[in-house]
UniProtKB/TrEMBL annotation:
PAS domain residues: 196-233
One BP term from GO: phosphorelay signal transduction system
Domain of life: Bacteria
Organism encoding this protein: Streptomyces corchorusii (Streptomyces chibaensis)
Entry keyword set: ATP-binding, Cell membrane, Hydrolase, Kinase, Membrane, Nucleotide-binding, Phosphoprotein, Transferase, Transmembrane, Transmembrane helix, Two-component regulatory system
Keyword check for Nucleus: no
Membrane topology per record: Multi-pass membrane protein
Localisation: Cell membrane
Protein name listed in UniProt: Histidine kinase
Gene3D superfamilies in UniProt: 3.30.450.40, Histidine kinase-like ATPase, C-terminal domain, PAS domain, PPM-type phosphatase domain
Amino acid sequence: MLQALIMLLLVAAGATALVVQGRYDARRTAEDRSLAVAEAFAHAPGTAVALRSAHPAAQLQPATEQVQKGSGVDFVSVLDRRGIRITDNDPTLIGTKAGGVGRAATGEMYTETFHGPPADAVRAVVPVTDPGRRVVGVVTAGIQYGNVGQVLDQQLPMLLGMAAGALLLATGGAALVSRRLLRQTHGLGPAEMTRMYEHHDAVLHAVREGVVIVDGDGCVVLANDEAHRLLGLPGDADRRHVRELGLGPVLTRLLLSGETATDQVVPAADRLLAVNTRPTAPYGGAQGLVATFRDTTELRALSGQAEVARSRLSFLYEAGVRIGTTLDVRRTAEELSEVAVPRVADFVTVELLDSVLRGQEPTSAVREMRRTALRASRGGHPLQPVGEVIRLLVADTPMAAALRRGKAVLVPDLHCAEDWRAQDPEGARRALDYGIHSLVTVPLRARGVVLGMVNFWRGAGFPRFEEEDVAVAEELVARAAVAIDNARRYSREHALAVTLQRNLLPLGLPDQDALEVASRYLPAESGVGGDWFDVIPLPGFRVALVVGDIVGHGLQAAVTMGRLRTAVLNFSSLDLAPDELLGHLDEMVTRLDTQLDGPSATADDDRVPLTGATCLYAVYDPVGGHCTLSRAGHLAPAVVDPRGRVSFPDLPLSPPLGVGGHPFEAGELELPEGSRLVLFTDGLIENRGRDVDEGLAMLSSAIADADRTPEETCRVLVERMLPGHPSDDVALLVARTRLLDPACVATWDVPFDVEAVSRVRGEASRRLADWGLEETAFGTELILSELLTNAIRYGAPPVRVRLLLGRTLVCEVADGSNTSPRLRRAASTDEGGRGLFLVSQFADMWGTRYAPQGKVIWAEQRLEGAPEPDPSALLEVLGI
């Protein structure tokens, strides 16, 4: 009966709460709907215009009625700034003054429950503003208060029905629970259950063994008096989680693991307890654990020894974590001293061989070492400072003996160590006067080689070293020696990789007139990588700019970079278009990677695959400022125009080298004179703290200055983008464009007729005279005649001749054929075949490059100090 009454009260309270909540929600819904209608009407584009017109009521009344019908509100009114109704759904109210809208005239928008004529309502008031943000009118919309609760009134019967149903369900559930409890207690009544509980409780608390029952969630269900005494449990331990009781990590883990344990010894406060645990589930109970505890005071002595061992193991573990966090030899030595003071010694000094500090192989000369680290628990110590050379002049000092034996030497009392005092009598006297009284010296050995030594000193306030301390010191130094040797090996490899990388990169930028170029290469903090750049002069005063990035770091990446750079140099000598060059480079990378995966590859082959390397290849032509670029998985360059505006051109992007299966495409840029082209690898703009977009924005800001030279641009980029050590290596190339003077370019379109050769030769001779190059006219005319004759005889139209004057003189003959000329030695009976030989004798260099339609044969002559052709060779080839 009591349960039914409680259920009735709860259901009644819930139904009342639903009704109250429903009325609140209905009012809020009315406010939101009114505000939405009023705000939409007030902000409509024509509302403010209509209010400023001569007849606002005529324009707004139809719209007001239409909005009221379509929005579900009871009224919509438009008022002027004084609150006089201009429009209203009730025409009798037009011209009357609305109350309570004064706040809207100041620009405030609000909702309220309005009481007054014409009816109580929930309404929203929104000011209408003109483009100058001045209030020109007010819009009100609302729902009459009597209509707000209609929906709730319709739902009230359903709510009462649900409340009645809930009451029936609750009453039935209570009856079912009562019957189930009666079955679970096997029909025992309250009195019988009370007597049974008292009997069990008396037995549980009378035993002299601690008992704790933990449920499946890790909360204490029951703990007897003995458990409270042995474990120091608080009085409110029941129902608290095991982790909240402060039992220590071992005991807490046992009670939460659910595993079986038998007589496991666990320290608890000042006791050692034998713990037995058994899960309760197999015995018919719920998931949980029963643990019993016995006090084993006879094991206290053993507990002390175990604690000492545990402390030492904990210290050595901590040392293993803290020593060797970097690959720096000096820092690793400092970490060793920081770990050891004050837990092992009062002072610690670390001496290393100079060869170890330089990253070289340790030498056998161990009589001189340099103090690398010193740590003291207090200032004003008498020991030699860091950086001084420590010389072992006396053969029987503890340090020399430790190095000779290869193991630690203990000196419990330095006052009795005559050999140690003989090494440096004055320094020994100062140390003893300071209070230093005990020493353990340990050789730093790794892989059987001495790297240095470590000295542990104790002074006043510390006990003397004992044999047990020696074992800890040796273990600590052994771990540090491995870390120092690893750092030494890394330093050596890093130095070798940096040297190799810098030797594989261009040692200097070549002389050329087309571009003013500056460059930077910065290795990563963790080691060099495979980033590289190159500047390659091409025929016709053109220049190729290259930037690339190899996946990985270290020597292998540097060697791989060298192979790719050499390949690019070789392919560029063929004067290929950028997309064709990257296509050949991609094929080479694919072949090399196939060899790595082939049958000759071994399991211990540590060569780095080339697949994934990126490259950007650009060719700039100073005749007209045309630049052709192609990129394989590389970032697009930045372009700074002569006015300092920065852009990142949208160039075709092909997959990285070695992926294969995709053709390479080229993009075209027209660069005015004075433009800067900034080529870079991803290490410049991307790191752990910023993404690519942020890096590009920073780069754009750094280079947006029209007056900076390429060298100044490189300096600013390094200062702003890489303030510390970069996480990835960086290659940077900045080139400012120049244009060849139009007066130094002569071009002729040649008819496809042999008779036109003499005319073009004459015009070229006159142009050479204008340039003051009469002394080179003979050789140039011969070169031009031979190339032009070959183009007309063996080529295809159109034919064009171009002379370029720079630091050299370049003669180019272009035709529409793709047939490549070939230098050969003509027989004495041949009528032809000697033209290209003559060209090769009079020109310093000559060659062929292919265009989208046809080819260009070019020949280059030096203007000063040009060698004369060998007359005898000319006569021989001409058969004279």
